[in-house]
Amino acid sequence: MKVGKLDWKDLKSIIDENRAVKRKDVRIRSGIGEDCSVVNFGDKECIVSTDPITGAGLNSGRLAVHINCNDIASCGVEPVGILVTILAPEDSRLEDIRQIMREMSSEAGKLDVEILGGHTEVTKAVNKMVISCTVIGRGDRGKAVSTSGAREGDDIVVTKYLCLEGTSIAANDFEGKLKNILTSAEIDEAKNYINYISVVKEGVLSGKFGVNSMHDITEGGLLGALWEVAKASEVGFKIYEDKVPLREITLKICKKYSIDPLRFISSGSMLITTERGRELVHMLENCGIKASIIGKITGNSYMMVGRDGVQHQVEPPQSDELFVLEEKLK
């Protein structure tokens, strides 16, 4: 099997074949593109999500907190607590685990999220550190935003810049290999992108503003996230490549190693659809968050207009370009 997420058809069939129970108090449940489930508890809702970190070396504790809290934020609510499972290979040191937990404690503290518990184990089942987290959020009943709420005619908005996570991982894990294409200052800047991968602020602000759908852009990059939103919402999309916000450092890395930045892991950017795109962009920028309208939700075709003006059909998401980059930089 290929490294990365399962093919969407395979994943959907596994989910559909194994849903033995559908409880009435579950308002939003698992599905393609839905990273969170929402459970009614009276006048409040519990929002839950889980994700592992397997593709990062340095800063993996920091990333684990943010990619999971970002999922909760994509529902428009604040994360409250996090459960942590660490599976460590036999050659791990106790200090390695301590460092992961120091990172997680520091980042969770910045978000006012409590580490509620979890499990730590040294096992022969893994050959590198695996961190898996479950995050819990709380919101008012009926208010959580779903991935599947995109509507035809919505503006497509993305926050900050794409590929912040992928660029940061490349600079932190392969600094020596990048010195032939980036200056020392550019490498330092790329490393620093990890400080901008939280989308909790824009997620909560957008939830209060009132949007139709949100999805944090993670494995599979922008095109993977768009594809998942469209599939979950039974709509299409049309975006413009020249409107997609990318850092020059990211473009240098992608050009050198023939990486598609639109399929490169992009925690740090939230994908939002709303009929009031300009108002949302204005609100977010007034709060210090860069935002860009990159296209529209359409009927049923998945299209991108390239920089050359030629329209292309977007194919289903494949393995993230991070795995391709790691192979090339080994």
Automatic annotation (TrEMBL):
It holds the Pfam family AIRS. Residues 33-138 form the PurM-like N-terminal domain. Transmembrane segments: none annotated. Residues 151-300 form the PurM-like C-terminal domain. Gene3D superfamilies: PurM-like C-terminal domain, PurM-like, N-terminal domain. Belongs to the HypE family. This is AIR synthase family protein. It comes from Clostridium lapidicellarium.
